[in-house]
Amino acid sequence: MTNPMIKPGPMICPFCGPRDASEFRYGGDPSVARPGFGCSDADWAGYLYVRENPRGLAREYWVHSQGCGQWLVAERDTVTHLVLRVTEATP
Amino acid sequence: MTGPSRIGGSAGESLPFAFAGRRLQGKAGDSIASALLANGIVTIGRSFKYRRPRGILSAGEDEPNAIVDVTLDGVRVPNVRATTQALQAGMEISPVLGRGAAFLTRVLSPFIASGFYYKTFLWPHWHLFEPAIRRMAGLGRVDPASRMTAAAGGSLSVDLCVVGGGRSGLCAAITGARRGQKVLLVDRQDSLGGSSLWRGEGCADLVAEVQALGAMVWTGATAFGAYENGRLGVHRQGEGLASGGSLWVVQTGEVVLATGAMERPLLFERNDLPGVMLADAALHYLRRHGVLCGSRPVIATNNDSAYPVALALAGAGAQVMVVDSRPASARSKAVNGVRVITGACIARALGRGRVSAVELDSGQRIACDLLAVSGGWTPTLHLCCQAGGKAVWDEDRVILVPAFPVPWISLTGRVAGDWAAPDDLPWEWAVAPEIPSSGATRKIWVDLQNDVTLGDVELAARENFTSVEHLKRYTTLGMATDQGKSANLLGAAAMAQATGRRATDLGLTTYRPPYAPVPMAALAGLSRGALQSPLRRLAAEPAHRAMGAHFRDYGGLLRPAFYGTDESSIAAECIAARQGAVVFDASSLGKVAVMGPRAGELLDFLFAGRMSNLAPGRVRYGLTLNEAGIVTDDGVVLCLGPEHFLVSCSSSHVGGFVASAEEWRQTRFGRDQVFIHDRTAQWATMSLSGPTSKAVLAGLGMVATLDDQAFPHMSFVMGQFMGKPARVARVSFTGERGYEISVPSGLAVPLWQALIAAGAAPLGIEALGWLRAEKGFLYVGQDTDGETMPHDLGFDAPRLKRKQGFVGDRALQLPVAGDAERKQLVGLARADGGLIPTGAHLVEGSPRRSIGFVTSSHLSPTLGRGIALALVEGGRARIGAEATWFDLGQTGRATVTPACAYDPEGGRLHV
Questions:
Q1: Do B182 and B160 touch, CB atoms closer than 8 A?
Q2: Residue B250 C-alpha, separation from nearest chain A C-alpha, in angstroms
Q3: For testing the chain A interface, which of B626, B658, B666, B814 should be mutated: the one with the most A CBs within 10 Å?
Q4: Beta strands in B836-881 (DSSP E)
Q5: pLDDT, position B109
Q6: Does the pLDDT value for residue B740 go beyond 60?
Q7: Which of B183-187, B302-306, B703-707, B746-750 has the least mean pLDDT?
Q8: How far apart are CA B242 and CA B219, in angstroms?
Q9: Nearest residue in A to B228, CA atom
Q10: What fold is seen in the domain B148-262+377-428+522-534?
């Protein structure tokens, strides 16, 4: 854990408040940008299949699929699984 | 020789039960183990591998021997741990007998060492021997007719969860509750107080305070798993044997483990004899159940914790002898009325079938009817280690400790190595395990449940399986249902000694959930039977039933398969559709509204075809893809008005379409410019079809005009049905003229009845599947697979015209998309008009190679011959050519045809 003040706890949806983790579904890496139509084949293949697998802090899409249905961006420590911050996803 | 007996008072309701056919009496509050001991029963079962008689070792979930099958009220539950299951009146208890073949166990037992099966049954092949060996293996018998019940579990969020309701846990719960934390206290026993219930006077004052502070208390509950982000899995016992209890996921802010420590046995020859018991367990049975486990006990120990046991047993009238492996100490001299031999170890236990004497390493023999042993204590670090704490041996404190702190878990009490002395004398309870040399004997047992001996550990060391993880897998040490609670540390210490290493270098095997077995019934919870995957149902189901519909489950939807008693009615339904008018309940078809200034733009992005230029009142067919260019669904889009569209996706893809559309909406378009609303359940849809459908609809008078000029194919008009809005769309999935009529779902039954009354015949989903196959209309997911792109289905424009701006656009330009040998959807026809089995492969070459497969196949009532759809490599180029099909050893010939076998010009739409 990077910050000893941060404790584990329920995921906090910015729309619904603290909710059980089972209500949320992982949604991918928000930093992966969709390449334009003129991109190379390799760029498109990378967009489809190549992902970072970070150790430590990661920004991730999560969906409150069993709740309000909103797409969220969570900052999560992949080592401790602690979710440090959740904000709504925007284009 | 008297053995165990009940000496406690007569209080408590008497509970009749049976063990191995014998009628016995227990008392309310008994565990199965204490009730058996109270009746003088020492031998509980036979061991797993060698069928040796075994007795009760412990009083908790560490019990390796006392596993029984229990039947109560007709429900048989196998492999019950007698030490943790409460006795109930009427229980029929049978011993679990290891089924090792008699000749193996009696004659060969000296030879069945670790790796015996691997080495012996290797040639010619293990699978030759496996069935017979598997029959010998295993413990209790499962009765498939017996069903345990389970209650609904759930999830819970607390600030602090304290695991263990002994003195330390109660104090931690009080501290948390006083701080204002929401506290949950979990304890596996049915009363709070932990070991103070038998080692002390209980903790009534602390229990009262915990309750006064309003902390939640779960007794009879086991925290069996620690998971990421502070989550604990907790199993709450149910009422009675047949209840599997309930499963809870507890989200915590922090966890305090007050799980105590488990006593280790001592290693000596024939240490598995019935009558050998942990010293703490002997005290437990005395104080909790009034059962004195022996009148002439020998208590063998290497630490101070057995002395209070000796005093208690002596106080209960037993003639106690203590054998302490350490030199004389203030404590060994301070026990009045108990004889103590210091500086001596047990060399072997003696007795036929049960212990009757012990022999010390000096050769001295002492008669006894109970051998209570204490080999030191192992902190119950399971949850901490599951969370990454990793247990290591601390040489200085001579105890097991977590190597890494887990930030959200703290330890208190005995699990942290703290055990307050009961008096003013020095209190040496933390000691290292002592491992004898196995010498000539093979009868020193390390893992009692899996029958692993010290000799097996030494053999593993000789054969170079020297890491604890290899030791476990080679000898099965720690792999039984007790998960080696009494064995793992001894096994690791034995391996350290056998390889000349220190215990610190070895560590322990990985701790994994569950800490104790959790019934499958609890894991399933209510999610079984009809509730396992609840069916969705149609609003008009009663009307279908009234017409004799035969229902089937289609992807979780209960729908009419056909109307009649058997499948012969399917063909008649098909003929009716081609000759008259039929009505099909299509209510589950998607009705997803997309609206707002950017609605058209979003739809253009979601479909591989333009939708934004659709005029109000018009309908267009389209495919949706994923970013890899693979077809995920097809459907039609209706333009309801400016900036307002309705997507009619296929029934089983509504959820997937909405999820995908929401993802793109929220992450690419923004929440405020376009909105998605799934109205599927709010509208019922009846699909009227057939050459006379226009006349049938005219009879209902729902819409102003049915004129084909004003109301052409692929358009819709609004009308009224029973004073409510009705939407009538001219679309067709049968190939005939068709009208899809949607009304508020409350009107599903009257609309169905009105259409039937007007002359339409009912059409089930099976007949629809035949009709659409005749037309070559595809079901995405049945006639496509995970590689199918639009052009494989004949929709060439998106790829060839290099269209862009939709999901999967760029993938259609990848080299793989242009491969001439891609599988394409085509039809097949046999010269004899016969049927080709669905799933048959098309094959060619030598050796034979699959070039595709049949996705749909029916005997067409319309055409009077078999028709089939297939995905075939370069299929369209093969049209007109012969192909060979192969299915389960059968082969045959067929001609490749276009997918559409009926009315390719589409003239029937306008009849």
A1: yes
A2: 9
A3: B666
A4: 841-844, 849-860, 865-873
A5: 58
A6: yes
A7: B703-707
A8: 18
A9: A81
A10: FAD/NAD(P)-binding domain (3.50.50)
B797 φ, ψ (degrees, to nearest 5) = -55, -45
Mean pLDDT along residues B404-420: 94
The nearest alpha carbon in chain A to B677 belongs to A69
CATH topology of domain B5-111: Ubiquitin-like (UB roll) (3.10.20)
Please check whether residue A50 touches B, CB under 8 A: no
ipTM of the complex: 0.95
Domain boundaries, chain A: 11-88
**Distance, CA of B64 to CA of B452 (rounded, Å):** 12
Q: Which residues of A touch B656 (CB under 8 A)?
A: none
- CB contacts of B804 in chain A (<8 Å) are 37
Query: What CA–CA distance (Å, rounded) separates B555 from B551?
Result: 13
CATH superfamily of B541-588+682-763: Probable tRNA modification gtpase trme; domain 1 (3.30.1360.120)
Q: Domain B592-678 classified CATH 3.30.70.1400?
A: yes
Has residue B135 got a pLDDT over 70?
A: no
If phi > 0 it is left, if psi is from -120 to 50 it is alpha, else beta; for residue B177 that is alpha
Inter-chain residue contact B251 with A20, CB threshold 8 Å? yes
**pLDDT of B261 strictly over 90:** yes
Q: What pLDDT digit, counting tens, does each position of B64-108 carry?
A: 999 999 999 989 998 899 999 999 999 999 988 765 544 455 555
Rounded-to-10 torsion of CA B611, B612, B615, B618:
20
Residue of B157, B228, B250 to mutate for A, most A C-beta atoms under 10 A: B228
* Residues B625-650: tens digit of each pLDDT: 999 999 999 999 999 999 999 999 99
A18 CB within 8 Å of a chain B CB: yes
Tokens, residue B742: 């949607």
Percent of chain B with pLDDT over 70: 95
Alpha-carbon distance of B289 to B36, in angstroms, equals: 11
Shortest CA distance to B776 belongs to which of B632, B906, B585, B636? B906
Model pLDDT for residues A28-83, shown as the tens digit of each residue: 999 999 999 999 999 999 999 999 999 999 999 999 999 999 999 999 999 888 89
Chain B residues in contact with chain A using a Cβ-Cβ cutoff of 8 Å: 155, 157, 228-231, 249, 251-254, 407-408, 627-628, 659, 662-663, 666-670, 804-805, 809-811, 813-815
Chains A–B, number of C-beta pairs less than 8 Å apart: 81
Which residues are CB-neighbours of B629 under 8 A, at least 6 positions away? B789, B790, B808, B809, B811, B812, B814, B817
In CATH, the architecture of B806-910 is: Beta Barrel (2.40)
Cβ-Cβ contacts under 8 Å for B292 (sequence gap 6 or more): B4, B5, B6, B7, B285, B286, B313, B316, B317, B318
- B628 vs A contacts (CB less than 8 Å): 48
In which residue are the tokens 């210091």 written? Answer: B342
Residues of B in contact with A69 (CB under 8 A): 662
CA distance B822 to chain A (A): 18
Answer yes or no: do B253 and A9 touch at CB < 8 A. Answer: yes
Domain boundaries, chain B: 5-111, 148-262+377-428+522-534, 541-588+682-763, 592-678, 806-910
- Chain B CB contacts of A8 under 8 Å are 229-231, 251-254, 408
Residue B372: Cβ within 10 Å count: 27
Of A8-17, A41-50, B570-579, the range with the lowest mean pLDDT is A8-17
CB contact under 8 A, A41 and B815: yes
The pLDDT score that the predictor gives to residue A3 is 44
* A4 has a chain B CB within 8 A of its CB: yes
Q: Which residues of A touch B663 (CB under 8 A)?
A: 27, 63, 71
Q: What is the CATH number of domain A11-88?
A: 3.30.2270.10
Q: Residue B199 and residue A85: Cα distance in Å, rounded?
A: 47
